[in-house]
Every structure is written in C-alpha cells, then in structure tokens.
C-alpha cells in the first residue's frame, strides 16, 4: 500500500524546484503549465512561498527563487563538500593543481570545497568561502556555461572554460559545470600557477564534473 502524501506540499516543492532551475524566473502561466494545475492554485502556492521568503515576484510579475532558499542551500553545502572531495582529490593529484567545487550563491561564485595536490613544489592557495563574480574566473564562468547549456544556447562548443589571470595575476584556471544535479548550480575546476593545456585538462575536468553530478544524484 503506497504511503500517503500531501498533494499541496508536492506541488509547492515542484514550484521551488522549477524556480531553482530557471534563473530568469517564470510567469504564473508558465508555472501552471509545468506543474499541470490552474493559475489559481499557482497563485496560492506562490503567495505562500513569498510569505516564507522562498519565492519573490519582480516588477514584471515573474516569479523567482527567494532569498530564504540560500539558508537552505547553506545547510546542504557540507553534504556537497563531502560528496565532491574524493573526486576533487583525484583531480588535484592527476593535474597537479588545486581543485575546487564552486556553487552559485546570491549572484556570486562561492568556493565550498578545495583540495590541494600533495606532490607539487608550489600551488595556488584557494580558501573555502572565497567569493568572486560569476563572470570572472573559470569557476564562475563555468556556472554561467551550465546555464547556457541548460537553455540550449551552447551547441557544439566545449563543455569547459579556461581562463588566465582573471582573479589572480599569473594563475591559470579550467572549470566545467556540474549539470543535471537537482537544480544545484555548481562547477568543478582546477587552478594553478603553471600553464594548463585546456585541450588536455578540460576534458579531465569535465569528466570530474560529471562524477560529482552523479554523486549528487
């Protein structure tokens, strides 16, 4: 006998998941079509979510994920770190560069896990909690790349990003988006003080990002 569930809660969670996956926001009509209910039901769900700061409406009436979702996300970060560290450790040792997991939070890139290689003479020091704009550095740009891929705006191009000197003079970065991970916007990358051959390192980083996505489930 199947367990009893709450239809209203199920619909509300589906709305949250859709908003988390759509940075541009969604209209009430779009949400109604996606959830498969009428607009009145969506209005009630959105109003309830707004009262808990889990959703917000912009001037055009489009609905976005709310700031209170950040508090929930912070609670998930330790779990994400634990799941990603084995892959990051293998990546750091393989490439000989500092490996990291970065997530999108409040319009910025936030480092939530960092693993340094053990065998190199020197490497980039990159601390957990470091923040930078999404449009600077390989980690943030990879998150933006993930958005473009999800929107179908990046056909036939590499699934990784390479940068040089954007956050730290002389530092090279390569990162790839973590895709298909339940609405979590994240990237896996490496950063080093020596040149990183993107043609070689890029596919390895992209493979690590896929491993992390699979671990996230």
Q: How would you describe the overall organization of this protein?
A:
With 217 residues, the protein is an alpha+beta fold. Helix content is 44%, strand content 20%. The chain has helices at residues 7-20, 28-35, 39-51, 68-95, 138-150, 198-216; strands spanning 55-57, 63-65, 98-105, 108-115, 131-133, 161-164, 172-178, 186-192. A hairpin with a 7-residue loop joins strand 6 and strand 7. The mean pLDDT is 91.
Please describe the structure with a list of short key phrases separated by commas or semicolons.
single chain; 217 residues; alpha+beta; Arc Repressor Mutant, subunit A; Beta-Lactamase; two-stranded antiparallel ribbon
- Whole-number average pLDDT? 91
CATH domain class of the largest domain: Alpha Beta
Strand content: 15-25%
Shape: elongated
CATH homologous superfamily of the largest domain - what is it? GAF domain
Query: What is the domain tally?
Result: 2
Q: What is the CATH architecture annotation of the largest domain?
A: 2-Layer Sandwich
- Biggest sheet, in brief? 6 strands, antiparallel
Q: What is the element string, with H for helices and E for strands?
A: HHHEEHEEEHEEEH
Radius of gyration based on Cα positions: 19 Å
Itemize the secondary structure elements and their pairings:
Elements: H1 7-20, H2 28-35, H3 39-51, E1 55-57, E2 63-65, H4 68-95, E3 98-105, E4 108-115, E5 131-133, H5 138-150, E6 161-164, E7 172-178, E8 186-192, H6 198-216
Antiparallel strand pairs: 1-2, 3-4, 3-8, 4-5, 6-7, 7-8
Helix pairs in contact: 1-3, 2-3, 4-6
């Amino acid at each position: 006998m199947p367990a009893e569930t709450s239809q209203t809660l199920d619909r509300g969670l589906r709305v949250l998941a859709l908003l988390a996956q759509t940075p541009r926001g969604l209209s009430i009509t779009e949400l109604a079509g996606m959830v498969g209910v009428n607009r009145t039901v969506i209005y009630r769900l959105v109003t309830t979510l707004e009262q808990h700061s889990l959703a917000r409406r912009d001037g055009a009436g489009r609905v976005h994920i709310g700031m209170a979702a950040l508090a929930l996300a912070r609670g998930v970060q330790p779990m994400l770190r634990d799941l990603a560290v084995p892959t990051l450790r293998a990546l750091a040792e393989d490439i000989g560069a500092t490996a990291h997991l970065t997530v999108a939070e409040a319009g910025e890139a936030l480092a939530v896990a960092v693993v340094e290689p053990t065998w190199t003479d020197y490497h980039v020091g990159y601390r957990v909690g470091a923040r930078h704009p999404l449009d600077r550095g390989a980690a943030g740009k990879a998150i933006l790349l993930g958005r473009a891929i999800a929107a179908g705006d990046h056909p036939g191009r590499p699934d990784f990003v390479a940068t040089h000197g954007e956050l730290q003079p002389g530092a090279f970065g390569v990162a790839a988006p973590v895709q298909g991970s339940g609405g979590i916007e994240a990237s896996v990358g490496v950063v080093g003080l020596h040149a990183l051959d993107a043609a070689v390192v890029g596919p390895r980083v992209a493979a690590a990002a896929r491993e992390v996505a699979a671990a996230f489930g």
